[in-house]
Amino acid sequence: MLASAARRSCRRSSSQIRRLLGSSAPPAVVPGPCIVPKRGNDILNDPWYNKDTAFPTTERDRLGLRGLLPPRVMSFKEQYERFINSYRSLENNTRGEPESMVALAKWRILNRLHDRNETLYFRVLIDNIKDFAPVIYTPTVGLVCENYSGLFRRPRGMYFSANDKGEMMSMIYNWPAEKVDMIVVTDGSRILGLGDLGVQGIGIPIGKLDLYVAAAGINPQKVLPVMLDVGTNNKKLLEDKLYLGLRQPRLEGEEYLAIVDEFMEAVRARWPKAVVQFEDFQMKWAFETLERYRNRFCTFNDDIQGTAGVALAGLLGAVRAQGLPLQDFPNQKIVVVGAGSAGIGVLNMAKQASLRMPGIHITEGHNQFWVLDKDGLITKAREGLDPAVAGFARGSGPDEIPDLQEGASLVEVVKKVKPHALLGLSGVGGIFNEEVLKAMKESDSPRPAVFAMSNPTTKAECTPDDVFKHVGENAIFASGSPFSNVALGNGKTGYANQANNMYLFPGIGLGALLSGARIISDGMLEAGAECLASYITDDDIQKGILFPPVSRHITAQVGAAVLRAAVAEDLAEGCDDVGPKELASMSEVPYYEEINITSLKFEPMAMSEVLTKLTVLLTVGNGGLRRSKNVVPHLQPPCEQKINRENLTGSTEADAPDILFERMYQTRICFGCLLLTIFHLVAHMESIFAEIDAHGPRIWLCIAPFICLDMIMSL
User: Fold this and answer.
1) Partners of 227 in beta bridges
2) Where is the Malic enzyme N-terminal domain (predicted)?
């Protein structure tokens, strides 16, 4: 398809990027028009292109929309205000209603906009990310996934099931977008803290990718949510008549891995540069797939690595809040409740951070962690010890507390260890009860940190009210889902930090994408986490604020840190026209990240694909035909119309028309161009006649000069 993306990223050419290396104030980029390969109702039914009532009269004529829309043309601003007013009205009208009912009502109104008009949807989301992130993502997304089969109205993303084995390589080409940059995939086996939700877990990849677009500026046409449906072991779903997934037990062992392998190979075959994020896989498959693919694909697991990065950023912030240098981190005593994929991921990254602290010499055997699961404290005395957690099991040595035995309770561990930080990744709501929190008050830290990181809100280990009441006003609190700050009296505030992956994973994806990294290494992830940790000022840290508000600027900074790490580790292969050497020499990496973030707004739409295919033949440049921009030349932005005159004949801009014709003659567009033109005419005869029927002689007036000119210069 020669049609260009509906909402392109503001990409710069390699020459412009070179000028940016030492520049801080480059010229603004003017976006080009969108070439629409559809007409009439097909446009109105496509959320990528649809503007609803914002189509101006000229576009309604060109695109066959006159009469299909109400006559009034509304501006983007008017549409925006209309939606916001509707949303606020919903909030006012549902006051006093059950919280779950209100949350689903808010999700429905946003989802309807998403299905109808993506540009307006993402503009609303970007401008109101603080209000809408809890609706499109945690905690509301958990409720949506639980009821997804009943809420289903329109498909979004792709579904690869066990029944599709052997067909995925061809199925992948059913997705309409020619290029995909970011894929989020789940098998639905462990959705948040809700367990096995089967195919209904598709809500998680959809929500994650919405945040990729809003926070990282990934083009919404270039993201793909994916569900791998290998069955479900949830009896309730298997008995549900509305359930939309396979009604069979989950595949296991090699059968399961064969499905995932085939999917990954299909992705590589069509989109070899795509970043694949694994999401909400149960623990055994989370670690298995991460180790299986991390050195062959550009992929990461958000539950293991993303959660770990955010937790590490919070822990480093807690060290700063104590007035200590970051080098003191290896001396912090940390109790982790939950030995699943998220818990083990946090432990691994925190251990690596301790080993890399400058000026500190510790051994691999150093263990500053106490890990508990449903059976209590994990020690080396436990039978059938999981290899993933074995390195963190307590044993014998100078760091051990003699009275703590295998299976010791959480209260006992907290009382005897007196940890600096208590992390909850258990998925058990309320497990940090009053007794546990009062024990944390005796912590060796002047600012005890309590992180209740399980999602959704109902699964949080405790609330900020509980922490500030029982631990004290000097406590530091963070949670996976959003909570309100707590008024402590005397004008003081207890801050409810949200230690959510959304601070990190958009930046990881953006940095990996723009660096063209072959793989995503631990060093890249740790660089992103450390960037996030250093973002907060000392004044905010002393107040108990660990994380900044979610914004594109933060994502650009995290992405820049990830990109630099990729270059330093020689993993970067470059993106588009920007090669690895140029990336390595950049002085404005964060700015490079920011200019590659998609700016969502309505763009002018050019008339038809047919004219584009003919006029694009005349876009010439250095050494022959230029790379097709798929836009009508007279509608191109100035930055794309410019031709480097010094590379042509050294003449001035005033000679542009003559030089352009001379250059076209010199390149001698050969007989192949004529054949190509004939090929396009034959291949698209039906659409050409449709244009002729719609617009009459004007089509021939546009086409004829180009055909004649092409034939003359082919002689």
Assistant:
1) 159, 186
2) 114-294
Active-site position among 49, 137, 212, 256? 137
Where is average pLDDT lowest: 104-108, 334-338, 366-370, 485-489?
366-370
DSSP 302: I
Helix extents (H) in 455-579: 464-470, 505-515, 522-534, 538-543, 552-568
DSSP-derived secondary structure letter, 138: T
**Closest-CA residue to 388 (of 336, 338, 348):** 348
**Are both 389 and 467 inside the same structural domain?**
yes
Mark 459-472 as b/e (b = at least 16 C-beta within 10 Å): bbbbbbebbbbbbb
Contact by Cβ (8 Å): 615, 67: no
Active site residue 49: no
Mean pLDDT for the chain? 82
Give yes or no: 418 in active site: no
How far is 432 from 452, CA to CA, in rounded Å? 8
* DSSP letters for 427-484: --TT-S-HHHHHHHTT-SSSS-EEEE--SSGGG-S--HHHHHHHT-TT-EEEESS---
- Are residues 468 and 329 located together in one domain of the fold? yes
More confident residue, 74 or 11: 74
Pairing of strands 182-186, 223-229: parallel
Is the predicted pLDDT of residue 186 greater than 80, yes or no?
yes
- Token output for 179: 């290029």
Q: Would the pLDDT of 314 be above 60? A: yes
Give me the catalytic one of 87, 106, 121, 208.
208
> 80 with 119: CB under 8 angstroms?
no
Residue 559 CA to residue 515 CA, distance in Å, equals: 9
Which domain does 266 fall in, by range? 156-297
Identify residue 314 by its one-letter amino acid code.
G
What is the identity of the amino acid at 512? A
pLDDT value of position 692? 55
User: Which residue has 């038809």 as its token pair?
Assistant: 608
- 223 shares its domain with 318: no
Last residue of a domain, one of 278, 297, 316: 297
Shared domain for 401 and 471, answered yes or no, is yes
| Token representation of residue 134 | 């809890």
Q: What per-residue string of b and e applies to 291-326 under the rule 16 or more CB within 10 Å gives b?
A: ebbbeebbbbbbbbbbbbbbbbbbbbbbbbbbebeb
Query: 202-206, 596-600, 634-638, 680-684: which has the highest mean pLDDT?
Result: 202-206
- Do 321 and 470 lie in one domain? The reply is yes
Could you tell me if 328 and 369 lie in one domain?
yes
